[in-house]
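A protein record in our archive is deliberately plain, so that people and models can read it alike. The record that follows is passed on verbatim for readers who wish to inspect the format.
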Amino acid sequence: TLEETRRVVQMILKDFPQFANALDWELFAQVVSVVSERGTRLPSGHRAVYRLSDLASHSCSPNAVVETLNDSGLREMRCLSHTGIAENEEISVSYVSEQILLQPLEERRANIRQR
């Protein structure tokens, strides 16, 4: 979360005060929290934020899926729906794995909170 990132930044600046003016640490904390919370984990373990797919909202019953096409990390958003997606309907994806989505509600919520 943003608060956790701010706390870590403060710890770093306490140990290395010479870096206090090196950059806008508040902006840095905001960017790190966005990538941490909204970023997609790549097969390498790194995180990335994608221009279009990361605009989609989370849903436990999404109307789209984001897939990794190969080991290069190339991703593609595929809109799948049995009932169709209406014009101007919000596109939603799951931020968690299918394994977590299939868990009972309380277990799923606990797993989502741990992310």
Remarks:
- The longest helix spans residues 2-15.
